[in-house]
Amino acid sequence: MMMNKLFTMLAVLLAFQTVQAQQKLCIAFYNQENMFDTLDDKHKNDNEFLPTAKKQWDTKKYLNKLNHMATVIRSMNNEKGPDVIGMCEVENKAVLEDMAKTELLKRAKYTVVHFEGPDERSIDNALLFKSGVFKLIQAHTYPIHFADFPNTKTRDILMVRLETKNKAQMVLLVNHFPSRLGGEEASEPKRFAAAQTLRAICDSLLAKNGQENIVIMGDFNDEPTNRSMDSILRAKANEYDLNNGNLFNAMYELKQNGEGSHYYKGHFSMLDQIILSSSLTNCTGLVCYEKSSASIYKQPFMVESEGKYKGAPLRTFIGEKYTNGYSDHLPVFITLVLKKN
Length: 341
Hints:
Elements: H1 2-21, E1 23-35, H2 59-79, E2 84-90, H3 93-100, E3 110-114, E4 124-130, E5 134-142, E6 157-164, E7 169-176, H4 184-208, E8 214-219, H5 227-232, E9 235-236, E10 247-249, H6 252-256, E11 262-264, E12 267-269, E13 272-276, H7 278-282, E14 287-289, E15 295-296, E16 317-318, E17 321-322, E18 332-338
Parallel strand pairs: 1-2, 7-8, 9-10
Antiparallel strand pairs: 1-18, 2-4, 3-4, 5-6, 6-7, 8-13, 10-13, 11-12, 14-18, 15-18, 16-17
Helix pairs in contact: 2-3
């Protein structure tokens, strides 16, 4: 009997040490669907989201939007909010700071990383991270240029380098590729250009450090099987065969299973993706990808409950009709595991 108790105590101790040695991190991405304030910025194309516009974007609607997005974010990661969350479709840093200060999110102590970009719709990429979990090492943006469309401006790629408490560093690249406006085929060269820029950034990082921990996230307006993602970015389905700098698309399997993060014309598409360098999937450093942790976050309150759009994301607007929802995209996330240093 005494021996059995001893074995039980040892098992509990070993389990506790394993938990202590492996802290888990929730890494997410969420398209905010037009997170605009109500102020008229003379230097921006924000006319669609003003109190005087057709949408009558006033303080009440703005505060509803902040609290709705904060509700989704807070509910993730066992009601603690993601440790890192990349975003797109935000007007400025102030709207993110307003959201981070809401009652729902203020305990998470998110630090906001945002730079004003050149996009024609005045929407940018951004990233929030928990200041108690990470230290900011570096942040800047990379512009995307179109050789065939020199006057077209789009969202910059946001680069953020963070360090964890076990001294592991990771580079996060937040993206929002050009839309399919004008048709998928006609607009495809713009997404090719964005993918080429992103691939060049990865090549540069990996040339300096072949074991760089790279986390790519974003709304790519293409699916994992499209050429921009599979052929140009070289984000592959097989996490065990990442030779020659190939990347692992954690959302590939979800796409193959018929799942998606964005609903359009009766079906879901896997436009929102998280992509990883081989050091994370092979677990060669202090931070590792938890196998099969890639997920789409979907709760009943976030989706249409009835009608022909049942199951689709509950949006803020459908055309000019205010539906007081959340976003036209669902968040995606993965889990990373920190080894004990």
